[in-house]
Amino acid sequence: MKKTALIMAGGRGERFWPRSRRNLPKQFLSLTDDGKTMIQLTVERILPIVDLEDIYIATNKDYRNLVKEQLPGLPDENILCEPVGRNTAPCIGLGAVHISRKYEDAVMYVLPSDHLIKFNNMFLTVLKDAAEVAEKGDNLVTIGITPDYPETGYGYIKFRPDVMEGRSYEVERFVEKPNLEVAKEYLATEQYLWNSGMFTWKISSILDRIRTLMPDTYAGLRKIRDAIGTPEEDSVLEKEFFAMESQSVDYGIMEKAQHIYTIPGAFGWDDVGSWLAVGRIKKTNEAGNVVDGNVITVNTHDCIVQGQKKLIAAVGLENMIIVDTEDATLICAKDSAGDIKKVLENLKICHRDEYI
Amino acid sequence: MKKTALIMAGGRGERFWPRSRRNLPKQFLSLTDDGKTMIQLTVERILPIVDLEDIYIATNKDYRNLVKEQLPGLPDENILCEPVGRNTAPCIGLGAVHISRKYEDAVMYVLPSDHLIKFNNMFLTVLKDAAEVAEKGDNLVTIGITPDYPETGYGYIKFRPDVMEGRSYEVERFVEKPNLEVAKEYLATEQYLWNSGMFTWKISSILDRIRTLMPDTYAGLRKIRDAIGTPEEDSVLEKEFFAMESQSVDYGIMEKAQHIYTIPGAFGWDDVGSWLAVGRIKKTNEAGNVVDGNVITVNTHDCIVQGQKKLIAAVGLENMIIVDTEDATLICAKDSAGDIKKVLENLKICHRDEYI
User: Fold this and answer.
1) Smallest Cβ distance to A339: which of B316, B331, B346?
2) How far off is chain A from B268, nearest CA to CA, in Å?
């Protein structure tokens, strides 16, 4: 069966401020040594198994031009612009109705645009295995990540080790982000995977589930589908999308549906959740620093220093994140990376939109 | 007797990098909340007891224009440009020969241009007391600072508590920077003062000492004096100054001469030796931060953040120095302030003169 992909690129993440901005979110940034942006890497990664004309990008209309610039070979009509963010269920539904007009049925991979994967071949093998499971009946397959440590920032998937379908396991339930103690228990049972937010299913399977489990959303998607290619396409999309309930596919579909499978992956996945990830992703020098740009370090260790043209001199520092941009410089202790959002809150309160 | 002053402003200090540069050293920077530069404050401070036309600035010729800009009322001929730095003895000699052409004799205050004084009235009282001692015979008076703590970065003056002249004590000897243990002993004896590098003497007294203790320097100064106002003034100054031995007045004169007195001062003296001084000088907010410019702090304590136009966001920091300028930003742990010079060494080695 034909393989297609929907790459979700509508996020407005704030955790890479000041490099990421409202008009340049994380998926459009280069955070790796190869200079490619996150979304470019995401597309490149799946090209061996999905043709470029079958890759769809769901994004906010503000980012249409960024997508066009960064993915110049992508057909224009494959850029799906959400008039407003309504979480993943409507986004995936929009992708599915577009693909359903092109193919009677197809396998649909759903992938975030801002994760990194170290072992690409292993990742592709998992995607192929997932497609095999998805092609049977109306199975919905979520890709689970074999956990390395008791992370408390992710949701988990509990699977039934004794109920397999191909290389996947039946999902018993999805669980919210646990506390550390619970996360440790999960790890010990060996029956939990991290929920990566990557999915594989047939277009028919997912649309059928939206119809039965989210009937209002489905009705809206039908109207959008009927309007595609007509003069009313934009206005119908706008009207119906605004009216839709904001809902994640996890909560709206996966937690309620039958025939949910998970396939464990151990392909060096990283959700690149904060500047700390850059310390894992990029080359580290002998002093433990990750340094880019015009930077001098003196007696400085285990720091992330992302300079540009301006000279950054770091003296006697440890475990710091320094990020310089044209109009703003962040200096942040590594263990305070979660507080970067407070800078943005402050900027919002003060209406200093030029920095957001 | 007429009171005159020589303000020494030839220093090229590197400890306020990146704000201070080779073409804008510390004495021309504003480091206080009032916005005035160090040299402006130094001149303003003594105006109640020395007329502006009797204040001379000794500086490097590269800084002539900076002096003119920052001290617009000062007569042009009061800016004495050293062709090359030859330490304090030739500098003071140059000032003395200029003043000796204007007055048959006069009291000469010698002051660094880059120190701060908190209690100005007390300082002026000390200067007046020092002048009284200096006017008698050929006494040379150095202003000592009553030490607050066992500083190891200053030289000390040992005085004879039982040999007074007016409000000053006879100096027994000058001692080099001590180690901590020795500095503690000095403090305990109550017979040691910090050597501030501020002096009071008559023109006749200092020139006579140069003549007897530094005869070669004196010979050069005589030639310079004779050429003042002639077409050869600049060429003679250049030739003689280059030929002079580089020598401090402490070593060349004070440690060898008779009739040396010190007058203790406790007027809130600060030599503003590094960025740490800014934490003492400027207003500190509730979080213990000294903040200027376009700065947002989140959970940040006891930091010095000197921003300008660019937004500086400091998150989760403690005891840090952050200094932003047009083309360079310093981020330095407070206890590594002494390592800022290593940044400059690095820049010199790499011939990156634009940053020096």
Assistant:
1) B316
2) 30
* pLDDT score at A55: 98
pLDDT digits 0-9 by tens, B136-164: 999 999 999 999 999 999 999 999 999 99
Interface test with B, best of A16, A17, A274, A298 (most B CBs within 10 A): A298
Amino acid at B349: I
In three-state secondary structure terms, A76 is helix
Task: Using CB atoms, pick whichever of A311, A314, A332 lies closest to residue B315.
Answer: A332
DSSP letter, residue A57: E
Whether the CB-CB separation of A157 and A171 falls below 8 Å is answered with: yes
Pairing of strands A192-202, A116-117: unpaired
User: B355 CA to chain A: closest CA distance, Å?
Assistant: 8
Torsion over CA: A60, A65, A70, A73 (sign)? positive
Whether A336 sits inside 8 A of B328 (CB atoms) is no
Q: Does A310 sit within 8 Å of B327, measured CB to CB?
A: yes
Dist. CA A273–CA B235, nearest whole Å = 67
Q: Quick one: pLDDT at residue A108?
A: 98
Token pair for B333? 């742990």
Reported as half-sphere exposure (CB side, CA atoms, 13 A), residue B64 has a value of: 11
**Is B330–A315 a contact, with Cβ atoms under 8 angstroms apart?**
yes
The gap between the terminal CA atoms of chain A, to the nearest Å, is: 44
CB-closest option in A296, A317, A332 to B346: A296
Helices and strands per DSSP (H, E), number in chain B: 11, 17
- Interface confidence, given as ipTM, is 0.90
The reported pLDDT for the residue numbered A211 is 98
Beta carbons of A32 and A26 less than 8 angstroms apart: no
- Cβ-defined contact of A331 to B310 (cutoff 8 Å): no
Q: So what's the pLDDT on residue B12?
A: 83
Instruction: Count helices and strands (H / E) in chain A.
Output: 11, 17
CA B245, B251, B256 angle in degrees (round to 5)? 115
Tell me which chain A residues have a C-beta less than 8 angstroms from the C-beta of B347. Answer: 296
- The Cα of B230 is separated from the nearest Cα of chain A by a number of Å equal to 47
Query: Inter-chain contact B332–A316, Cβ cutoff 8 Å?
Result: yes
pTM of this prediction?
A: 0.90
Instruction: Please report the pLDDT score of residue A12 as a whole number.
Output: 84
Q: Long-range contact list for B236-239, CB < 8 A, 24+ apart?
A: B237/B83, B237/B94, B238/B83
| DSSP character string of A181-247 | HHHHHHHHHT-EEEEEEEEEEEHHHHHHHHHHH-HHHHHHHHHHHHHTTSTTHHHHHHHHHHHSPP-
**With a cut of 50, which residues of chain B have pLDDT below it?**
none
Q: Which position has the token pair 């500098």?
A: B91
B298 vs A318, A327, A343: nearest CB? A343
Q: Which residues of chain A have pLDDT under 70?
A: none
